[in-house]
Input
Amino acid sequence: MLSSPSGKIRVLIVDDSSFMRMAIRGVLSKDPSIEVVGTAVDGVEGVEKALALKPDLITMDVEMPRMDGIAALRQIMAKAPTKVIMVSTLTNEGAKATFEALDAGAIDYIPKNVTDSAQAQTIFRDELLRKVKDSVRSRFGGAAPIARPAMAAPVRRVSTPLRNKKINYVGIGASTGGPVALQEVLSRIPVNFPYGIVVGIHMPKAFTGPYAERLNAKCSLSIREAVDGDVVKPGLVLIAPGGMHTTLVRQGTNLVVKVVPTSAYPQYVYIPSVDLILSTMAEVTNGSMLGVILTGMGNDGFKGMQLLKSKGGVTIAQDEATSTIYGMPKACVDGGVADEVLPLGQIGYEIAKFAG
Output
């Protein structure tokens, strides 16, 4: 619910850089559906203005004097829960801080990539506007999805138990809300899980490595960023690297990762493409796999799940109630390619059942 009588999205900008405050304000102010209601130069002022102005959304820098963005985020969530998008540097430390912020309740993040390059400025502008507008449709309860209790019943369940079907691999796709959701799912899968898992999640190049390290530290499974030539093995989770596309090929009896530049597949808008990962996996496994689509904006993953379904594979989509953004799962549900539609808290357990 927007609090502005005009129906505009009311945004507070918190950043210690005057350049970034001007850059963000300049982008948002030109859009008639958005109103910038204030700016703050650090976390202390950000908390004060969040409480006073009651914005619909806050863009929050991570590194600031007096109080950093994560500390400010936690205070805001405790005093006046508000949707927050983190503005993060494209560095290893920036990535780690961003994931900490997502755990603390931020709904999304945008890479701080404003340079003299016209292309970089265009990408930043488009990404900022898209994520601010997407925030209106996002689920928000002041707590990360990982903390939500599992719901009792799925929206849809096929008549034959899915785990009676034969699978050899698992492919998972996610976007907005995905970092926290994927951690919840993978944390429910035991270390002796007998199938290899490949994950596609929309992230910049600098983020997928630190994200894989974070998951590896928090889950029983072995998790790392994929590199070209990796073999998909039982009990191993490979995170597709950001900034490029990932495909799966068959080499002998092995399923092998092939990393390719985005220019090789210009038809795929989202990077890395979940459709490309799932489609190539479905082809080389002849459908003997499980496909899972988690929270995310858009419809990336639908075509891959459609192909997998046509080959007799198994498909699961996250339900609307537990999705931060019910876009990617909705495309699969509405398109009739989801065998089961489950709340986030049940998906990891359902995957684990395939271990037999």
